[in-house]
Every structure is written in structure tokens, then in C-alpha cells.
Amino acid sequence: NNLERLIKLENNLILSETDLRILLDTFTKEDLSYAMNRARKVREKVFGNEVYIRGLIELTSYCVCDCLYCGIRRENKNAERYRLTKEEVLSCCRTGHELGFRTFVIQGGEDPYYSDEVMTEIVSSIRKTYPDCAITLSLGERSKESYKKLYDAGADRYLLRHETADEEHYGKLHPKGEHLRVRMKHLWDLKEIGYQVGTGFMVGSPFQDSSTLVKDLLFLKELNPEMVGIGPFVPHHESVFKDFEHGSLDLTLMLLSIIRLMMPDALIPSTTSLGTIHPRGREFGMEAGANVVMPNLSPTDVRKKYLLYDNKAFTGCEAAESLSLLEKSMDSLGFQVVVHRGDSRRAKIRN
Ligand code: 5AD
């Protein structure tokens, strides 16, 4: 039964694809609460009660991609577009550093304006100004040479979700003939260069089912990334998928728990999208084994322009400047926000 399946997962025993699929298709409320309790225990063994925070700086809302789920897709003529300058990014870092952030995540659409030259300049300036901080990039697909240059300029980590590990499903989410195998190659390249790598997927994206989710879990196991980001799909009113339902809270929590049981030392954020579909979503995510939160550190006037989906929160606990609210909320769950880079335990020391 499902309890036995969860125990197997926790004991690092191979669970067959069929078993994983049955677990995802048939879990009850009781199964979910058992999974969450075990996941929280496993998280505690590795990280104690510590919560790592990352300041998210949304660099650009321009994007050449047309991902059918995304609010800043190129074809959305009504999206408001902006780009941050190096000075604006550094000013966000300054605010963040004072607040206690020691990781900055520079995230943006795939925007050719940020050439290798422009981007290395930004990265090396942050590196120079904040030698005690980790720099995470999340800029979509670039060339391997580009990843290497940015790594050499001082970037430590790269986030690039695979979105779905099923080739056919990947095609249904990306209309321009993008290929899953290409995305996967990028992830292996990033790893080879030496980045701490993060990947992940949306839960409840259109045309997803338990068999595509099982492929996601198996791919995670194979790539063994340092970080795993998952969150529910949330429709955006200007996207092709505007009429689809958002992903399920319980399924997201079950997957978070499963991933924690499968990958005890992974860095797993409780995402903004989870906080978007339920007022206590982010807290539930922490209780399901997540150990990272990524408050928004972008300049306040651009936050409402970086809308990947509807109702995205950027105030209260989601706002970096309200860190004390987040600390209180984490405290009430028995967690403690810490001030350090929060590297993966597997990370090599760089010099
Ligand atoms: N709902 C939820 N997540 C989304 N993302 C993009 N669009 C949506 C959406 N509509 C996620 C993708 C991407 C990450 C930056 O945001 O998984 O990798």
C-alpha cells in the first residue's frame, strides 16, 4: 500500500515506475500527512530547523520564448516590458545584503540584450562588491561558452527547470519545436562546468498526468541536481493556457514530500506559486520538506510587470523588505531563517 511505498522511498529502496504512479494516483489525506511528516523529519536530519533565504531579482521581462503557460511570453503584446541596469541590480543587492540575504538570484526572460558582455559585467560587479554572497542565475538557455564565462565571472548556481521530462508533453508546452533533449543537455553542461544546478517542473501543467510526473521524478534522480524547484501551474489570463485550472495543492505537497524523501540533501524552495493558490501554501510547503524561500528583492515598481501567472504575490512575506514577517511566520512553524549563503553540502569550495 501507499504507506509501504513511502517507507521504501525514505529507505532509498528502488520504487518501480508502477509503484510511483499508483502512489500519485491514489494517495489519501492520511497518506499525504504521513508523507509530509516523514519529509519534515528527513529535512530536519540534514538542515535542522534552518531556513535558507534567497533574494530574487527579476532582471528583465523581455523574452524571446513563447512558452504557452507563461505570462511574459513573447506573443503577449500586453505584457509590460522592462530591463534593469547593472546599477539597479547592484542597488537591489545592497538592500538585500543589509536585510541579511547572502544569495542573490538573478532571474529573467531569455533576453538577448543581456549578452555575455553585459551579463559578465553584472555578475563580476556583484562578485566584487559582495564577496560573501552566492550568485544564482536563472536566465533560461544560453550557450555552453556563455555559462562558462558567467561561472568564471563569479556565478555559483544556475536554475533551469526542465518543466516536464516527457518529450511529447514538452512539445505541448513549447510551441516552437523546442526539444526536451536540448534542455537536458543544458542541464548536464551546467553541471559539468561546476555550477550547483537547480531544475524542476510545474505541477498540474496542461496535459500532465501521473506517467509524465513519474518521468520527472526519475529524471531528478538521474540528474541529481543540488536544487529542485516545483510549484503548481497557475494560469495567466493572457496566455494560451488561460482556461486551464491551477495545479492541485495536495499533489504539489505530495510531490514535495516525495522529492525530499528521495533527495534528502536537496535545496528545495517553497515557491511563490504555492503561496498563490492557497493563503497558507508557502507554510504547507515548508511542512512538506522544503527548506528555502525566495522573497522578491526586485525594485518595487517592476514587480507587477514580472507576471508569469495571475495573482502572483509580491507583498507581505513575499517581499524581501518585509523579511521580519517571514521570520515570524517561519518561527511559528518551528523554523529559523538564517543569514548565510546556504550552499548545497555537496558544493565544492571555489577559490
Ligand atoms: N504557473 C506556474 N509557474 C510558471 N512558470 C512559468 N509560468 C508559470 C505559470 N503560469 C514557472 C516555470 C519557470 C519558472 C521561472 O516559472 O516553471 O521555469
CATH architecture: Alpha-Beta Barrel
Gyration radius over CA: 19 Å
Overall form: globular
Q: How many domain modules? A: 1
- Helical residues, percent: 40-55%
How much β-strand is present in the residues? 5-15%
Layout of secondary structure:
Layout: H1 2-10, H2 17-26, H3 29-47, E1 50-53, E2 55-60, H4 86-99, E3 103-108, H5 116-129, E4 134-138, H6 144-152, E5 157-159, H7 167-173, H8 180-193, E6 196-203, H9 210-223, E7 227-232, H10 249-262, H11 272-277, H12 281-287, E8 292-293, H13 300-303, H14 323-332, E9 336-338
Parallel strand pairs: 1-8, 1-9, 2-3, 3-4, 4-5, 5-6, 6-7
Helix pairs in contact: 1-3, 2-9, 3-10, 4-5, 6-8
This protein binds 5'-deoxyadenosine.
The site of 5'-deoxyadenosine (5AD) has 12 residues, from loops.
Give an overview of the whole structure.
The protein has one domain: TIM Barrel (Alpha-Beta Barrel), CATH 3.20.20.70. The chain has 14 helices and 9 strands. It has helices spanning 2-10, 17-26, 29-47, 86-99, 116-129, 144-152, 167-173, 180-193, 210-223, 249-262, 272-277, 281-287, 300-303, 323-332, and strands at 50-53, 55-60, 103-108, 134-138, 157-159, 196-203, 227-232, 292-293, 336-338. Helix 1 packs parallel to helix 3 (29-47), helix 3 (29-47) packs across helix 10 (249-262) and helix 4 packs parallel to helix 5 (116-129). The N and C termini lie far apart (49 Å). The mean pLDDT is 96. The structure holds 5'-deoxyadenosine (5AD). 5'-deoxyadenosine (5AD) binds at residues 69-70, 161, 163, 202, 231, 233-234, 236, 273, 308-309. Residues 69-70, 161, 163, 202, 231, 233-234, 236, 273, 308-309 line the site of 5'-deoxyadenosine.
